[in-house]
Amino acid sequence: MTTHVVAGMRVLRAVADRPDPTLPLAVGDLARGLGTALSTTSRLCSELTDLGLLEHAPAYGSYRIGPQAVRLSGRAAARFVPAVRYALTLLAHRTGETAFLGAPVAGGVRVVAAVESVWTLQSPARVGELVTDARRAVVRAAWDRDEEDPGAGSGQAVESTVGMGVEVAVPVRSPAGECVAVLGVRVPVSRSTPGVARARRLLKEARQVLAAELASSPDGPDRPGSPPGDPSRAPAGLEAAWRVLWHLAGGRDTVTGIARASGLRPDRTRRLLESCRRADLVRTGRDRGDVWLGWGVHGWHRAVAVPTMLQLGRPLVARTADRAGACAFITVLDGLRSLTLVEELRDMGEGLGMTPWLGRLAPIIGSDGGPTLVQDIDERRLVDILPARHTPAQVDMFMRRFRRAARDGVLSMRSIDELGVISVSAPVRDAAGAVAAAACVVGPTEVVSPRVRAVEAETRALAAGVSELLCAPDPGAQTSR
């Protein structure tokens, strides 16, 4: 049974770890990649599908990530959303370069969150990317052994130049000293002076934000939840492992605590944890008898967000535009800019038309969903990193709208740049409960203003519909982050 669980968890990781885990992956390709028999791989995929960790893809005999795996990822990452969002936004905004968070995994470091550079020519990082080159700074920073790489082991910034890119990285450690993640900045060689020096300084500041969050973590799971499945019966191997992983997604715990919460015997819990460790999903603390879920799973729910909104969000946006009698959009945060991901334009009346914004970037101050998109950043921190080019009056208005969006859950506002336009926005939330996008409805003041409450209701409904696609937790069940 132990071998069965290890093989099943490796199948799950092979599907979910990809940069786009919503793409179909054929059973034959899975079997070849993992070195397992086709029949065995097929049975494992079927079992994982029954648990909701995988689901059938449209192509025959292929699979993609399932909703329960997305929820597991979101549950694990939820506590750290504000800290990660702020740290990466701070790095990307003040360096102008790509900032990313990586998780140590077997064979290297996997990118689990990233904010792109503002420049056209950039050194990119993509969620799901696996870095295995031992020369790279992000891999060296993840090493815990001082004797192998003194710079990395001491927690100092590590630098590497590979090809036309420079990478600077620092380890992020738990209070017990384990390297749980790595913060990094990537800079093209052509901008490495003074970019690298700036990155080194800011990485230390950003790391303090994450370290403070780790230090404030409770001794046990801070997000209790019922174990998946029927608690009245003894679960089979993969289902039992799923119970253990779900519990650990709420926070680190001891074997005794895990067994009690999962309804499993301690000896069986130990075997399941060893199987999950061999599959590189869980890790054991250095000096304490606790176990924690590796941060490699934190990227799964982020990797599915954009593909899901592009594939499944358009019909919802079109329906909202028709019902609201205005233009409807889904916008996402790109650093401190808004990017239009999905749009449905409608006739604005004789003599009027809406300029397409699909694929275009807009400054966060002045964009339709701006105050909604940055809801995960603490107000005091947000003021410190807003672009300096805006006037104090514009910043003050933006922050008042930010607070109103937080209070009401929906925001109606007149454009600060254009007369005669009203926008309504509401937050789209992902599996971590984080703001993944803004649902926006935009139209002429004469059209929207008389029916603004109805348009707000349609905007809320659009946000809720897209949030459901992203496996967002029930708003009533969310705990404060």
From TrEMBL:
InterPro entries, per the entry: GAF-like_dom_sf, HTH_MetabolicPath_Reg, Tscrpt_reg_IclR_C, Tscrpt_reg_IclR_N, WH-like_DNA-bd_sf, WH_DNA-bd_sf
A biological-process GO annotation: negative regulation of DNA-templated transcription
SMART domains for this protein: HTH_ICLR (SM00346)
Record's keyword terms, sorted: DNA-binding, Transcription, Transcription regulation
PANTHER family: HELIX-TURN-HELIX TRANSCRIPTIONAL REGULATOR, ICLR FAMILY, HTH-TYPE TRANSCRIPTIONAL REGULATOR RV1719
Domain IclR-ED: start-end pairs: 295-472
Transmembrane segments: none
Gene3D superfamilies: 3.30.450.40, Winged helix-like DNA-binding domain superfamily/Winged helix DNA-binding domain
Species, as recorded: Phycicoccus endophyticus
UniProt keyword annotation of Transcription regulation present: yes
Protein name: MarR family transcriptional regulator
PROSITE patterns listed in its UniProt record: HTH_ICLR, ICLR_ED
Domain HTH iclR-type, first and last residues per copy: 2-67
